[in-house]
Amino acid sequence: MAQTKPMNPALGTDVTTPDPQARGWTSWLSDDTSTRSAALLVGVLMAIALLLRLPHLAGKSLWLDEIYSMLYARMSWSSFWHEVSTREGNMIAYYLLLRGWIHLGDNQSVAKILSILLGVATIPAMYALGNQLYGRQTGLITALLVSVSACHVRASQWIRSYSFMLLLLALAAWFLARGLERPSFQNWSLYLITASLAVYCHFYAGLALTAQLASLLLLSGEEIPCRQLLLSPAAAYVLTRNSGQLDWVPKPKLWELVHWAVFLAGAGSTGVAYALLVICICLCVLSFLQMRKVWVSRGRSLPSWRRAFPFLWLILPVAISFLVSYAKPVFFFRYLIISWPAFILVVADGIANWRPSRARRGILVIAMCLSLVSVGLAYKTEEDWEGAMRYLLSRLQDGDTAFVGTGMAPLVYYSSRWYAPGAAPKVELPDYEKTKASVPEFARAHRRVWVVVFPNFAPEGRTAQLLRALEPTYAVAEENKFRAVTVERLEVAKSP
User: Fold this and answer.
1) Are 30 and 17 in contact (CB under 8 A)?
2) Rounded CA separation 142/121 (Å)
3) Mean pLDDT, to the nearest integer, of 421-435?
4) pLDDT at residue 14 in the model
């Protein structure tokens, strides 16, 4: 039997609290939990999250963007500022933090621990946000979901800015909600600081902030703050420093929306992740129905905003980037991790609004098991550049010719890690365009060449064109495939 509690001031609507004997595994996650007990629970969840994010730090090969992060962290200050000012303005806040952090140890495990700590810090931030929007029970469920989220585990192990950005977006949303409820200089200042830092971590955070600000239109006119919200300095910096980093992104297909949703639910396109997504969609529907109920009864008001805000944050950035991609491709599932906090909030609210039953208990247990399986799958290497470069460098001879394409950064990074200065094989790196224009002449001087093929999420056009040009003259003499990377040795098969 359900017992009705008085109106929850945080939500502005009646809340139905299940009989404690019927709550099942969520009996310790309720609005009645004391502040001290909630803090203890969040601490336990942070410890669990840390344990889930620590495995396989050293044994997992870096992927391409992580290698760039390590190169930016290790380069001289003059070279770093040159890169930032002329080409790579994105993620500057994270790069600066990483440059200081690697003084604790210049290796990938130490670098990953920075992202892990930022990821673990996201748990209390998401608890605070869930508590602010929905109440303590949903805040605690949110913290639980974050701790076992395969998507967040994966992002927390990347030597990239994602875990830092997600932490800042969660804090910005929390300060926004606090500022609307209790306007103060402190709340709005902290919102501006965290929101601006989020954009300096990754320029796609601007889409999440656009959704946050657009949600204010759901409020009545007198409740909308105007002068306090100004993010133009961060936005202007990113726009003026964008130098073609997204040129490789292909035009999206409708299936990419499913890819994005599966990424948020289970961190990858596996059967486990798809099953988890189906459960999450059902929970999102429950949250939507509750949001609609509050909206019908309260109209444009702060309680209605609290319910609708996560849905706008979840949907608007994806819709904007997908539609813009028809003019300029910008839709990429990994960058749209910016909507992950909203996804977790909506799913947590769906759990809180699901009436206790045996079916509920069983499905939630299954979902928890699926999530933990997805965490295990997230430990797998995504791009085996370490294996590919070890193979290539072990076979290169001084004077060999190699077309490494996108693999130039991995070649530089691993050569510097494995060889003393000047001891790595001396490799000739010809110009792609000149080679394609004069293949017969090139073949007379180079009887064998090495090619690194990295299709990524779209074919690497320059390498694909080169292979087509070489095909009439060269044949594949040796090929070794690694995860997402292929190394080929070509030899002249027909005299030019």
Assistant:
1) yes
2) 14
3) 92
4) 44
